[in-house]
């Protein structure tokens, strides 16, 4: 065994109280600077959260309104008369033709919404 002891005094934080206090203040200053957001970024983040919230509420509202529609009605292609989408597609199938002035995708979307 070696009788030479290792000097750990340089690792002791309280050996030099002034140095320790400077180190703590430097660390705290860095933390304070890191947590202070830039005012412009803070404003953009605030507005962005509000926009996301508003669009989410609008989407949920439209989704609820779409599913609350119990009997969707579309134009049948014969003027002002309206009928149920299932009845309309059945009529087209019996006649073996689709009117030119009817949006087939709109009718199919109404059937999917049920």
Features:
about 110 residues, mainly alpha, two-stranded antiparallel ribbon, 4 helices, about 60% helix, rod-shaped
Q: Please outline the major beta sheet.
A: 2 strands, antiparallel
**Total count of strands:** 2
Percentage of residues assigned to helices: 55-70%
Count of DSSP H/I helices: 4
**SS class:** mainly alpha
Span of the ends, CA to CA: 87 Å
- Beta-strand content estimate: under 5%
From the alpha carbons, calculate the radius of gyration and give it in angstroms: 36 Å
Strand order of the largest sheet: 1-2
Point out poorly predicted stretches.
Answer: none
Overall geometry comes to rod-shaped
Task: Return the string of H and E elements.
Answer: HHEEHH
Overall average pLDDT? 77
Descriptive overview:
By secondary structure, this protein is mainly alpha-helical. 61% of the residues lie in helices and 4% in strands. A two-stranded antiparallel ribbon has the order 1-2. The model has no long low-confidence stretch (mean pLDDT 77).
Give the topology, please.
Blueprint (H helix, E strand, L loop, with lengths): L16 H19 L3 H30 L5 E2 L6 E2 L1 H11 L8 H10 L1
Antiparallel strand pairs: 1-2
């Amino acid at each position: 065994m070696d009788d030479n002891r290792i000097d750990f005094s340089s690792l002791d934080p309280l050996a030099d109280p002034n140095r320790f206090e400077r180190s703590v203040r430097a660390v705290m200053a860095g933390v304070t600077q890191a947590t202070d957001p830039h005012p412009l970024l803070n404003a953009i983040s605030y507005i962005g959260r509000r926009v996301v919230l508003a669009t989410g509420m609008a989407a949920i509202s439209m989704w609820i309104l779409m599913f609350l529609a119990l009997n969707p009605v579309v134009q049948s292609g014969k003027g002002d008369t309206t009928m149920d989408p299932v009845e309309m597609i059945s009529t087209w199938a019996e006649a073996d033709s689709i009117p030119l002035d009817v949006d087939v995708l709109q009718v199919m979307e109404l059937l999917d919404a049920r």
